[in-house]
Automatic annotation (TrEMBL):
InterPro entries in the cross-refs: AlkZ-like
UniProt-recorded name of the protein: Winged helix DNA-binding domain-containing protein
Amino acid sequence: MPATLTPARLRAERLAAQGVGAPGATPAAVVARMTAVQGQDLGQVLWAIGVRAPGSTRADVRAAFDRGEVVRAWPMRGTLHALRPDDLRLIASLTAERTIRSIARRATELGIDDALVTRARDATVDALHGGRSLVRDDLFDHWRAVGIDPAGGRGYHLLLRLALDGLVVWGPTARVGQGIVLLDEWAPATEDLPDRDEALRRVVTGHLRGRGPATEADTAAWKKLPIGDVRRGAAAAGDAIERLGDGLLALADRPAPGGVPTGHLLPGFDEYLLGYADRSAQLPVVHQDRVVPGGNGVFLPMAVVRGVVAGTWTRAERSTGIRLVVTPFEPLDPAAVRALEAAAERYARWLVAPVTFDVAPPA
């Protein structure tokens, strides 16, 4: 391995680690390899998993949630992620206390104190025990019935706090969204939590397994951990981590790049960008505002060619199927158009629905 990776080689290595377009993995195996997948939008995270499990369908990904193999919760950064229940417990052992401290001021502003958290906990257990699930609005109705007002952001904040305490997760899929369940009933722990050094080793190697090569700063930003903790985890990993130069780390036994399609249609909030503090290798700085318009924190779905984000895409449902339109940043060559058209065909197979594909003039 050269001391310095070229940008093209770095992108190829990262695509290989991410498993984008690599066949053979089940939805549950994809999530296990990634450790956690950004998931504040359910529809987007279903496709984030599906694009890494070619041959699966949307129904297959939903089934992984329905079986309790995958859940959604707030393991770090106050952001919903999809992950295995045991990985949720592992990450939360490192991050939950810090996150609770970070939201304490907002809790006070909302009039939330320990007594109210306890009341919400008791009401939630009463509503969900015995394997029951409720969508958020129905759970909030139960809270109102016992005198807990979820209006004004209190409901969201209380639900976040109960999740950080390890009580609830988003579990089985519903007609709209997901049902909220008691974590330990829905998906009982299958292993004991390790000590802190081992937990740090697992989360650092987990980040690199699904995103390497990456820097310590990338891992710290993704996990919202102090850089010292990241270095401690990397040291615990020993020779399992290879140092590639320019501050980049990767697993020594990482998959070789190549053997996957050259074009991909990735969802919004995809880990191909969100997994790194420095995203310039994949997304040229000049185009970053087009993926995150106005820097508002909303990442649009991305059209990727040869590892570079080349545009965004939208979908519109029609009576005859889905119309998918790619808006490139610059004119696409014929090979790029064919690669993205093939990606649209893979998306259609995942949806099990007809998809028409168009390329708009460059934005």
